[in-house]
């Protein structure tokens, strides 16, 4: 499970995050530190990272539970609902 910043400016941007994901090949990718309605204005939204990617699952909750042996076989991107 890879939690990765994708918003740029203060951290890596969407392009660099994609490169990291391609190198590590995690089974689950959870993007973080991106612009939201109430968030930091200097960064970009998650859609820049998600563009052209398959296996994207947007959840309407701000947390997820994973159990050993139940992770997807191939990479899945899970976008959690911002808690703030």
Automatic annotation (TrEMBL):
Signal peptide (residue range): none
Gene3D superfamilies assigned: Ribonuclease Z/Hydroxyacylglutathione hydrolase-like (3.60.15.10)
Pfam assignment, any one: Lactamase_B_3
Protein name listed in UniProt: Metallo-beta-lactamase domain-containing protein
Record organism: marine sediment metagenome
Lineage summary: unclassified sequences, metagenomes, ecological metagenomes
């Amino acid at each position: 499970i890879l939690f990765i910043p994708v918003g740029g400016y203060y951290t890596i941007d969407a392009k660099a995050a994609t490169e990291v994901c391609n190198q590590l090949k995690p089974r689950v990718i959870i993007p973080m530190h991106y612009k939201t309605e109430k968030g930091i204005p200097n960064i970009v939204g998650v859609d820049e990272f998600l563009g052209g990617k398959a296996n994207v699952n947007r959840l309407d909750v701000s947390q997820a539970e994973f159990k050993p042996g139940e992770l997807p076989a191939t990479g899945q991107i899970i976008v959690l609902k911002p808690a703030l």
